[in-house]
Amino acid sequence: MGIKEGLSRLFEKKGDIEEDYLDLDLDIENYEEEIEKDREVKMYIKTAELTGLYDVPELKKEIYAGNMLILDISVAKRDKILVEKAIKDLKLASLDVGGDIAGFGDEQVIVAPTGVKIERKKLGGR
Fold first, then answer.
1. CA distance 117 to 98
2. Residues 47, 24: Cα–Cα separation, whole Å
3. pLDDT tier at 126 (50, 70, 90 boundaries)?
4. pTM, two decimal places
5. Inter-residue contact 124 to 107 (CB < 8 Å)
């Protein structure tokens, strides 16, 4: 096929364009309902694992997005300096947005978003 034939095939009319689009079976109402559901969500509670300092930027993005994080620090706990630096960075981010951060047990940390305070007293028991 030569260039002339190729160009003529490119520009030849292939029927009614509107007809081609009518064949698509799109359910826009379902799509709009899904978008509406997402708009109602103000905050997600997400779980994550802190394995190294390279995890911190992604975790900070979640904090600034207004999400609550439940972090598993059991792997990172082997390196005390790593944990201290990572928690310090996350604490600064949570304070920056008006949130809170607290340890939960020996291997978990909770980072709360704007307007959420973590109660440090246990309910029930002594």
1. 9
2. 39
3. low
4. 0.65
5. no
Q: Which amino acid makes up residue 44? A: Y
d(CA 62, CA 76): 19
91-118, pLDDT tens digit by residue?
Answer: 999 999 999 999 988 899 999 999 899 9
Asked if residue 52 lies in contact with residue 82, where contact means CB atoms within 8 angstroms, the answer is: yes
C-alpha torsion angle, residues 90, 113, 58, 71 (rounded to 10):
70
Report yes or no: 73 and 101 within 8 Å, Cβ to Cβ.
no
Residues 33, 34, 38: CA angle, nearest 5 degrees: 115
- To which CATH superfamily is domain 43-112 assigned? SepF-like protein (3.30.110.150)
- The stretch 8-21 carries a mean pLDDT of 54
